[in-house]
Design a protein that fits this description.
Pfam families: zf-dskA_traR. This protein is mainly alpha-helical. The chain has three helices and no strands. The chain has two domains: 1-31; 33-75, no CATH class.
Length: 75
C-alpha cells in the first residue's frame, strides 16, 4: 500500500466515523421527549401531536407557522 492509498483509506474511515456519530446523535434526539408546553406560545402541546412526534417542542400551530416562515425565506 502506498502513501496515497493509506491517506485515502484514513480519510474514508474518518468520514464513516463522523457519519456514524451523526446517526447516533440523531437517534438519541429522536428518543428524547419534548416538552409538555410549546416553546413559542407556552400553550400545552396536544396529545395527538405528542403521540405522533414525542420529541416535539412546539404545538402544531406554531410548528406550521415556523415551517411557513422557513419556506418564505428559502423561496
Amino acid at each position: 500500500m502506498n502513501i496515497g492509498d493509506f491517506a485515502r483509506e484514513l480519510g474514508e474511515e474518518r468520514v464513516e466515523r463522523e457519519r456514524d456519530v451523526a446517526i447516533e446523535r440523531a437517534r438519541a434526539s429522536l428518543k428524547q421527549e419534548g416538552s409538555d408546553d410549546c416553546e413559542d406560545c407556552a400553550r400545552p402541546i396536544g396529545q395527538a401531536r405528542r403521540k405522533a412526534m414525542p420529541s416535539a417542542t412546539r404545538c402544531i400551530s406554531c410548528q406550521e407557522d415556523l415551517e411557513s416562515q422557513q419556506r418564505k425565506v428559502g423561496a
